[in-house]
Design goal:
The complex is a heterotrimer of chains A (569), B (274) and C (197).
Chain A (H helix, E strand, L loop, with lengths): L9 H6 L4 H31 L14 H37 L7 H19 L26 H29 L12 H32 L11 E2 L2 E2 L8 H35 L6 H14 L15 H28 L9 H24 L1 H7 L3 H31 L5 H27 L22 H15 L1 H12 L63
Helix pairs in contact in A: 2-3, 2-4, 2-14, 3-5, 3-6, 3-7, 3-12, 4-5, 5-6, 6-7, 6-8, 7-10, 7-12, 8-9, 9-10, 10-12, 10-13, 12-13, 13-14, 13-15
Chain B lengths: L1 H5 L10 H32 L17 H29 L9 E8 L2 E6 L33 E4 L1 E5 L4 E7 L4 E5 L4 E5 L5 E5 L5 H7 L11 E4 L12 E6 L1 H26 L1
Parallel strand pairs in B: 1-5, 4-10
Antiparallel strand pairs in B: 1-2, 2-3, 5-8, 6-7, 6-9, 9-10
Helix pairs in contact in B: 2-3
Chain C lengths: L16 H30 L13 H26 L3 H31 L8 H28 L5 H4 L1 H31 L1
Classes of the chains: A mainly alpha (569), B alpha+beta (274), C mainly alpha (197).
The structure holds heme-A (2 copies), dinuclear copper ion (CUA) and copper (II) ion (CU).
The site of dinuclear copper ion has 9 residues of chain B, from loops.
């Protein structure tokens, strides 16, 4: 691409950069800030849940029910579309995929830059909703019509932001696929790819193929809102006592089908790269190969396929026919099997290892039972009969937060601690890291475990007062205070993390930084840390073996890097 | 397990509700076994294979196939659950019952933020509803008082039903999507505008008995309620209705009382208008 | 290091990067139009009043003409690529020019159709058939405009590349052509689905 000796302007180098590493860092910073914002919104909401109708401390105002709804919808949207997905595919994917396949950049650097800027614009557009009269979108992250169609302008902005984010994802994901298919280093055959690459590969396909139907749906909803069409508006609507202007004849369920056709694969977008990250870290810190590499790969591919035909398990209670419900219930049970396989392989990988408990490993290890708990609670939801009692209760909230918060977020933390030396050449502090881990682990469970019980009691989600006025919530409503306390303490527990990052960044670099501080085998560690300039590797790497050749019998060191020639060392 | 879960759930008060609870119990057994099983393995390996205890890792690791047996076990158990509990159970709950079997039919029309209840009245037939007749003050569902609608009874947020009868509710909505939920009956159905979905249940405990059971709990004195499960706007959190389960006799009395009330009101309205 | 396989084929996959890229992009486009078409089918099947929505008000002859225009443009697009393969830039310019002309022709005919609908008071909000009609053809039209921008670039300023990297430029035309055929194909589905069935 560009010549490394050529002097690049500041703009070209840091702002409109086409270097995958800079773009990855841009993605990382933006999305971590968004995560923090999404969490911040939730910290405010948790006050309202614990102490309904009392003014917020310090701020002094009361979170009104419409603001509660708006914060809730934006928490979900920000966390998923602006936080986790951009971290895990935008930042991790961009930074690591070319390095791990031994490429000098992404296949289409300019599109890569466009992808980041679409994300940026989409994020800003979506946030601008907070400034509009009526506030940001308030119909939940699911935006079910007719509610979303009759909602305030914030919804329009949400939809436009969504179109930008979809474009960004399409550009990013096709880039990742082409990079993996076309730019693999010589010798890096499919079955020698790190598990992380496989996870990113399948994820990219999910993004590529599942997002467009949501784009279609977003366009329909924009038309319903702006041009007065009735794609989602049935005949004979009476809102607020007056007949509406819509011609009618549309179907509210059409939106749900199009939305969940995206949103179910989307949840695997949240989890697969997390599983990939955890796999890397586990192999590295047990000092032995991942157990059942092939089963892992096939399971991930199978998960990818299946995730396109389970979407309606979110719609069991819409009055779908029995046959439909049963079909989706069966596919849902089927999709849980590869997840069981993946988790089993990761557990068994620990056996016989020599386990180092450093911070990345602690996060990666705790990911396993947390994702396990989240996944297991998905099972009763997947059977329409037991879902009747649990649908739209806090049981669902608990289910998916266990998979995304102590699940994916922990995997993200693990990845950040693990790859920080790659990006900056400096290791994060272990004491601060372990403090961060310990308290995060405790408080995450403090928030989400009581939700399971509240859910069993039948407390609905999205209630601005946490359900305190309902009779059936009376014996579990007092958990809210405990859960909110845990959430705020979880917030405090992030301070060591942020501090750690700042302190490490301003710390002076070692003169001779070890390019491979974890003694890892995969290709990203075969170039200097951080990689020099635009182009990554000093000379094109050649791959001689599989990704996790740790503790090979007869080998001098306990790791054999992929790019090391046999008999060299 | 079912009893354990039920100890956190609202008291079960419908005939078919145990189907779902039992299934839930069985699934939670599976979950517990997997969690405890793998959890034990996990903790044990972490302790045994910590680097200070096992400085040299074993390249080959486990060679036995017991994890495959676990996976097959999960598949078999899930298949069993589906075939013998989930599918037949759901079919029982959702099966469209013949009119003779159902003894009471009531329409529920949700709106922001109330539950309109519509009884067919003495003739057992629902009157027609028209958008043009809707008046939020006097006639929120737009019921046509001519024809079958003459004796229909409508209430707001008050669902009255007899105990031990198979009841068919038609769930629909006037504006946005709501979620009709009766936690004690293990009943839930989205109320979707443009659709009218039938659901069935047989209440087994009258409100009076129910209140007796609640004595001494945190819920003392708070009877059955209709909850809204689906986000439907700003006041979603307080869209609450009340349900009273009567003995058969009380129910009849209530109907008569409402009909008399309707007659009086009806005359009144008529006079005013003309 | 240079990014490899921009023009030469990667031996084990038999592709150059942009070709794989465009196929992936088209796959996602298939999903987009797949979503739109399934929405159309679902709305149509679930609406008892559909027959009264005036599908016959559409101008079939004009649309048939438009179909021919678009198919022609697809053919000239192939010809322009073939001309490059044969090293004949003059011919390339001719065929690319014709492609662009046809694309504009398509837009003009579409404009006539749209404005006659509007003048008869038929808007997207009138009923769901018209809503589907306008949204689907509108999105297709956006794709046509996108194609015009790309092809226009290769017709004008983008042609520079032919002097330095002819191979790569030819690939670009092939990729642009694949996109253009897709846009054509979408219309071939839209035409019967909206006008005839
Ligand atoms: C990353 C995200 C993610 C993941 C991975 C999953 C995974 C699964 N989900 Fe979940 N789900 C969501 C995110 C996710 N979900 C979200 C966001 C919602 C709500 C959306 C909304 O309404 O707002 C939701 C809602 C949701 C519903 C709808 C509920 C309702 O609204 O009524 C259903 C129903 O079937 C469901 C099922 C499942 C199933 C069966 C899995 C399976 O894939 C899980 C398979 C995993 C396992 C079976 C675990 C295996 C465990 C072991 C092997 C043992 C472990 C041992 C130890 C831990 C020691 N999910
Ligand atoms: C990826 C998705 C994701 C994640 C990670 C989270 C994380 C959290 N969520 Fe959220 N949540 C959703 C997705 C997510 N949520 C969705 C989709 C809904 C449904 C919305 C709807 O109803 O429509 C929901 C709803 C929801 C509710 C229910 C609201 C209701 O129904 O009324 C609650 C209640 O407590 C909640 C709480 C939390 C908490 C306490 C966390 C915590 O775990 C947060 C933890 C976060 C962090 C620990 C931040 C880490 C980041 C940093 C520390 C950044 C550092 C920065 C720099 C270095 C620059 N969430
Ligand atoms: Cu009605 Cu929520
Ligand atoms: Cu799902």
């Amino acid at each position: 691409m560009t010549d490394t000796h050529h002097k690049e302007s500041f703009w070209r180098k840091y702002i409109f950069s086409i270097d995958h590493k800079v773009i990855g860092i841009q993605y990382g910073i933006m999305s971590l800030l968004f995560l923090l914002l999404g969490f911040g919104l939730m910290l405010v909401m948790r006050w309202q849940l614990a102490y309904p109708d009392q003014p917020l401390p310090l701020l002094g105002w009361r979170l009104s029910p419409d603001m509660y709804n708006s914060f809730g919808a934006m928490h979900g949207t920000i966390m998923i579309f602006l936080g986790v997905v951009p971290v895990i595919t935008g930042a991790f994917g961009n930074y690591l995929v070319p390095l791990q396949v031994g490429a000098c950049d992404m296949a289409f650097p300019k599109l890569n830059m466009a992808s980041f800027w679409c994300y940026f614009v989409g994020g800003i557009v979506m946030l601008s909703g907070f400034l509009l009269p009526g506030g940001a979108a308030s119909s939940g992250w699911t935006s079910y019509p007719p509610l979303s169609v009759v909602a305030t302008t914030g919804q329009t902005v949400w939809l436009i932001g969504m179109v930008f984010l979809i474009t960004s994802s399409l550009l990013g994901s096709s880039n990742i696929i082409v990079t993996i298919v076309q730019l693999r280093a010589p010798g890096l055959t499919w079955m020698r790819l790190p598990f992380f690459i496989w996870a990113q590969f399948v994820t990219a396909f999910l993004l590529l193929l599942a997002f467009p139907p949501l784009e279609a749906a977003a366009i329909f909803q924009l038309m319903d809102r702006l041009a007065g069409t009735s794609f989602f508006m049935p005949s004979g609507l009476i809102v607020g006592g007056a007949a509406t202007d819509w011609a009618g004849g549309g179907s509210p369920l059409l939106w749900q089908h199009l939305f969940w056709f995206l949103a179910h694969p989307e949840v695997y977008v949240l989890i697969l790269p997390a599983l990939g990250t955890v796999g890397e870290i586990i192999a590295n810190n047990t000092r032995r190969p991942l157990w059942g590499y092939k089963s892992l790969v096939y399971s991930v591919i199978f998960l990818g396929f299946m995730s396109f035909i389970v979407w309606a398990h979110h719609m069991f209670l819409t009055g779908m026919g029995q046959t439909m419900s049963m079909f989706f219930s069966v596919t849902t049970m089927i999709i849980s099997v590869p997840s069981v396989v993946i988790l089993s392989c990761l557990f068994i990988s620990l056996w016989g290892g020599s386990i180092r408990f450093n911070t990345p490993m602690l996060f990666a290890l705790s990911f396993l039972p947390m994702f396990g708990l989240g996944g297991l609670t998905g099972l009763p939801l997947g059977l329409p009969l037991s879902d009747i009692a649990l649908h739209d209760t806090y049981y669902v909230i608990s289910h998916f937060h266990y998979v995304v918060a102590p699940g994916t977020i922990f995997a993200i933390f693990a990845g950040i601690y693990y790859w920080f030396p790659k990006v900056t050449g400096k290791k994060l502090n272990e004491v601060l890291g372990k403090t961060h881990f310990l308290f995060s682990f405790i408080f995450m469970n403090g928030i989400f475990f009581p939700m399971l019980i509240q859910g069993l009691a039948g407390v609905s989600r999205r209630l601005a007062d946490g359900g305190q006025s309902y009779a059936h919530a009376q014996h579990v409503i007092h958990y809210n205070e405990f859960m909110s306390m845990s959430a705020w303490l979880l917030g405090l527990a992030q301070l060591p993390f942020i501090l750690n990052i700042i302190l490490t960044l301003i710390k002076k670099k070692d003169k001779v930084a070890d390019p491979n501080p974890w003694n890892s085998t995969t290709l990203e560690w075969a170039c200097p840390s951080p990689p020099i300039g635009h182009g990554n590797f000093e000379k094109e790497p050649v791959v001689y073996r599989g990704p996790y050749e740790y503790s090979v019998p007869g080998h001098k060191t306990d790791f054999s890097p992929q790019s090391e020639k046999l008999g060299e060392k | 397990m079912t009893e354990f879960l039920q100890s956190y759930m609202p008291i079960l008060a419908s005939e078919m509700g145990h189907l779902g609870d039992n299934l839930s119990g069985l699934v939670h057994w599976l979950m517990l076994v997997l969690f405890i099983g793998w959890g034990t393995f996990f903790i044990y390996t972490l302790i045994r294979f910590r680097s200070s205890n096992n400085p040299k890792a074993n390249y080959h690791g486990i060679t036995s196939h017991y994890s495959s047996y676990v996976e097959v076990g999960v598949v078999v158990f899930e298949a069993l659950l589906l075939i013998s509990f989930a599918i037949p159970g759901y079919a029982t709950v959702k099966y469209d019952k013949a009119l003779e079997e159902t003894q009471i039919e009531v329409r529920v029309i949700a709106q922001q933020f109330a539950w309109n209840i519509h009884y067919p009245g003495a003739d057992g037939k629902f009157g027609t509803t028209k958008i043009s007749l809707v008046d939020e003050e006097t006639n929120p569902i737009g019921l046509d008082r001519n024809g079958y609608g003459a004796d229909d009874i409508t209430t707001i947020n008050q669902l009255h039903l007899p105990v031990d009868k198979l009841i068919k509710l038609y769930i629909s909505s006037k504006d946005v999507i709501h979620g009709f939920a009766l936690p004690e009956m293990r009943l839930k159905q989205d109320a979707i505008p443009g659709m009218q979905v039938p659901i069935y249940f047989t209440p087994t405990i009258t409100s009076k008995d129910f209140l007796v059971k609640l004595e001494g709990t945190a819920r003392e004195g708070m009877g059955y309620e209709i909850a809204c499960a689906q986000l439907c706007g700003n006041s979603h959190y307080r869209m609450k209705g009340y349900m009273t389960i009567h003995t058969e006799k009380e129910y009849k009395d209530w109907l008569v009382e409402e009909a008399e009330y309707l007659d009086a009101e009806g005359e009144d309205d008529w006079d005013d208008e003309w | 290091m240079e990014i490899p396989y921009n023009e030469e084929l990667r031996p084990d996959t038999g592709l150059y990067n942009a070709k794989l890229g465009i196929w992936l992009f088209l796959a996602s486009e298939v999903m987009l139009f797949g979503g739109l078409f399934s929405a159309y089918i679902m709305l149509r099947l679930s609406d008892p009043n559909w027959a009264s929505y005036g599908q016959d008000a559409l101008n079939v002859p004009l649309a048939t003409l438009n179909t021919t225009v678009l198919i022609t443009s697809s053919i000239t697009m192939v010809m322009s690529w073939v001309s490059l393969k044969l090293n004949d830039v003059k011919k390339y310019k001719l065929y690319m020019g014709l492609t662009l002309l046809c694309s504009f022709g398509f837009l003009i005919i579409k404009y006539i159709e749209y404005s006659s609908k509007f003048s008869h008071g038929l808007f997207p909000s009138t009923n769901n058939f018209l809503a589907v009609y306008f949204v689907l053809t509108g999105l297709h039209m956006l794709h046509v405009i996108g194609g015009i921008v790309v092809n226009g670039y290769f017709f004008g300023p983008g042609l520079k590349m032919w002097n330095t990297e002819p191979e790569r430029f030819t690939n670009r035309i092939e990729v642009a052509g694949l996109y253009w055929h897709f846009v054509d194909l979408v219309w071939i589905f839209l035409f019967p689905a909206l006008y005839l069935l």
